[in-house]
Amino acid sequence: MPRAIRGVLVECDPSIKSIIIKIDADSSHAYIVEDLDDETLVIKENMLGMLKTRLEEALKETQDKGTGVKTGNHGVIGDQTGKYAFDSGVGRIEDIKNRASST
Fold first, then answer.
1. pLDDT-based confidence at residue 62 (cuts at 50, 70, 90)
2. Residue 54 neighbours by CB distance under 10 Å
3. Interstrand relation of 7-11 and 70-72 (parallel, antiparallel or unpaired)
4. How far is 98 from 95, CA to CA, in rounded Å?
5. H/E/C letters for each residue in 4-16?
């Protein structure tokens, strides 16, 4: 006998959809009920909140990689220019910026 699954229709850009599909694949297909087209998915209603959280984390990681800024337990530890070194959370970022601009 067929079973019905409650779902939520999600419309998004193809780039966001590809991230959602990767999250779903990494989670043993726990989120997506149906892939409808390039911009539309049906997501399991009870998993929507968890998917939003995972998507926000993935987007934050993508954004950090795009800017060249690396973050760690102690805040900014460097960027591509090397101007902003932040050693184990010691000092303030303004002081480091001032030192970098004076050199």
1. confident
2. 20
3. unpaired
4. 5
5. CCCEEEEECCHHH
Q: Find the mean pLDDT for residues 88-94.
A: 44
Q: End-to-end CA distance of the chain: give it in Å, rounded.
A: 74
Phi first, then psi: give them for residue 11, nearest 5 degrees.
Answer: -110, 130
C-alpha distances (whole Å) from 15 to each of 53, 62, 67, 79 are 17, 12, 18, 26
Cβ-Cβ contacts under 8 Å for 45 (sequence gap 6 or more)? 6, 7, 8
Domains by residue range for the chain, with CATH: 1-66 (3.30.70.1220), 68-103 (no CATH)
Average pLDDT over residues 46-69: 85
